[in-house]
Design goal:
The chain is α+β, with helices and mostly antiparallel strands. It is built from 15 helices and five strands.
Amino acid sequence: MSELEKTTGIVEEEVHEEQISQSYWALVWWKFKKNRTAVLGAIMLAIFYITCVFFAEFFAPYPKELETEFIEARSTSFRFIDEEGNFSLRPFVYGLEKKIDKATRKRTFEIDTTKKYPIYFFVKGEETKILGFIPTRIHLFGTDPNDEEAKVFIMGTDKLGRDLFSRILYGGRISMFIGLFSVTVFLIVGVTAGASSGYYGGATDIIIMRITEFLSAFPQEPLFLALGAAVPIDWPPTRVFFMVTILLALVQWGGLARQVRGLVLAGREEQYVLAAQSMGASDRRIIFHHLIPATMSHVIVIATLKIPGMILLETALSYFGLGLVPPTVSWGTLLQDANSIRSIRFAPHLLWTVPFILIAILSYNMLGDGLRDAMDPYSK
């Protein structure tokens, strides 16, 4: 055997041993990275959580409640070339001029090409607090803060003259966080109840399964509407927020509990569980250290596919006025401003919230599908 063949054989053997020694989660990560759709969904969700949940105050040019005189103004797009054909490295926006439409008797705002306002990055603006406790006046972009007439509305304004882009970012914080927090409660209740039911059996199993059947006997949509209407209207927004989140989670945990119960029923007879029992491990340790971790691959997939459903439920309840209500800003409350023919006819830019909802839902679905495939790394 030549020296080259020996070297090649050693390299192939090392690679083969490395592949065999890879853990389950390493194989899951390796297969997940190969799915470009799932990676794209993960990247989009990371962008949403960075721009909306964590740093909305930085990316939003104005505070969510800042009112201006520009009522239902159309969007002002960034430009690099003016009407005369002159190119500028610094983007700018044209000013807005108020006019009265004599046919509809409606106040409108048209582009005034005689006024040019350059766009600056990392500018000082209205003081806000990142995550509610970190004060800052720095915003990603904006116009000259010393010029009161200089405004930039890249998605227009609402019926009170508030910047719609800023409000969409702030609304995304509430809607995305409700989806994540409600699914967390949903997982804690569903996994714990399902694991206890499958491990103990007997009366515990009967009681928990009858509760899940009772919850599943009600049509979901009327039940959500009834629970949303039961929330007192005089409650502060924070209390309503947590109540809506808990209601969304507590109504839907039954399906997950039944799935986890089936997995635990099959897993409690495995050798590692019997070994733990023979060594005197407590029931609590067996459930939380052996049985529940064995179901995590299934639970993670369920969670990623459940979050978009929770976001849509919150949006629907808030849209009908049964969830979060103004002045709390969420994607559902923002859609309330576009629930009339007049709004769609004269202010179609109020529907900018819809693409954000669709992209967030599609991103979660793409991530969930990718995780579902990656969790079975041995399949082709």
